[in-house]
Amino acid sequence: MFCRITSEPIDPHEAAQHVRSDADGAVVLFSGVVRNHDRDRPVVGIRYEAYEEMATQALRVICEEVASEYPIGDIAVVHRVGDLSVGDVSVAIAVAAPHRDAAYKASREVIERLKREVPIWKRERYVDGDEEWLDGTIPGVPGGS
Amino acid sequence: MFCRITSEPIDPHEAAQHVRSDADGAVVLFSGVVRNHDRDRPVVGIRYEAYEEMATQALRVICEEVASEYPIGDIAVVHRVGDLSVGDVSVAIAVAAPHRDAAYKASREVIERLKREVPIWKRERYVDGDEEWLDGTIPGVPGGS
Amino acid sequence: MTSLFFASYRDLVGAEEIVLDLPEGSTVSQLVEQVRSRPGADALPEAPAVAVNREYASIDTVLSDGDEVAFIPPVAGG
Amino acid sequence: MTSLFFASYRDLVGAEEIVLDLPEGSTVSQLVEQVRSRPGADALPEAPAVAVNREYASIDTVLSDGDEVAFIPPVAGG
Asked: Measured on CA atoms in the order C22, C28, C33, C34, is the torsion positive or negative?
């Protein structure tokens, strides 16, 4: 298991290397990439910010729980922070498993939970010079409504 | 769209490069890898064989149909033929899309259809020296039962 | 017309390719029958999946001179 | 105890970190009230998501000396 928040450029294929094993017949690699538009508004980049110590810990919990839920070999997740440009990879998730069904499902579960639970935020920069923090998801809190 | 049957080793990351575009925020890369066991029997390798001209054409049809079914940017599929060892990549499927949901679903659809429709066969080689053609799926044929 | 055999079917038939001359108007089904009459080849299914000119085709398809008929064992890519 | 502010909440509060001394037995809710009484910070929600010592915690959590209380805006990773 490999879970990191990093300010360095992400090479998704390194994440895939982390999970490779001769027992696994399927590897699903998801890359999130900064795209040049958001709901039709032209985007030049995104600044990602994280509560790093907590985010790393939250990623680890997600990976452990997903690994216990699906018959998979290993998971690696790397999320970038700092100023990213269009085309830069913001997150890479690699899952290896003996069979593809578990690899796809576990991969999807990790990215969905990451987006709902991990303390990371993004501020989009637009072509017109404007910037704004994007609306996110209120994380589930014990005892919360 | 990039669809190939190849006898050369596959680099999955090349497939991912084929589909990259600034408009796409999600890339899902599936790799099928020769694993060291099949239903508990130790495997040393797999020989893949294809009806190459037809397989290439069938892959292209699948990619076109999946691309018209889901809002995605691009798809690349490469399937290997010849003698593969444990750890070698047999197939790589890359899908880029503006949003992740379509990328995951299209990726899954391509691999499922590939396994049901494309004229490719595999012969497993076992540690004990035995070999056998693996049971496959009878492809759907027009007017067939 | 040319018949092609792959994987386990090639092993059964003992050939990758057989060229047969069938009368005008013959169907895939009749071609299969001819092929199955060869030694060893009777282990082929009576109605295997076939592709005519690289597209899956029904066993009732009428064949023309020069058609390429592939006998397709259950597929197992991926 | 130390309060941490990220992203849009940091912009509202105008600080990354505020150290406050609250009476023994105070809750997260009381800490939030204190913070919201600062100029500008009243734009924070009355019951924001918080993490105490890096785990999500309820607004009723009783705080101890040295706790790290992070105010967590709606998350948007990926």
From this structure: positive
Provide the pLDDT for residue A143.
55
Cβ <8 Å between B51 and C50: no
Residues B116/C30, Cβ–Cβ less than 8 Å: no
Interchain CB contact of D4 with A (< 8 Å): yes
Model ipTM?
0.95
- Contact assignment for B27 to A31 by CB distance below 8 Å: yes
Considering only the beta carbons, identify the residue of B16, B22, B28 that sits closest to A28: B28
Q: What DSSP string describes B35-94?
A: -SEETTEEEEEEEEEE-HHHHHHHHHHHHHHHHHHS--SEEEEEEE-EEEETT-EEEEEE
> Which residues of chain C register pLDDT less than 50?
none
Q: Which residues of B touch C58 (CB under 8 A)?
A: 141-144
Kindly calculate the radius of gyration of chain D based on its CA atoms and give it in whole angstroms.
12
CB-CB contact of C73 with B133 (8 Å): yes
The CA-based angle B108-B113-B118, given to 5 degrees, is 135
Contacts of B33 (CB under 8 A, 6+ apart): A20, A24, A25, A26, A27, B87, B88, B89, B90
Of D56, D70, D78, the CB nearest to A90: D78
Question: Are B51 and C76 an interchain contact pair (Cβ–Cβ within 8 Å)?
Answer: no
- Token pair, residue B8, equals 């050369």
pTM of the model: 0.95
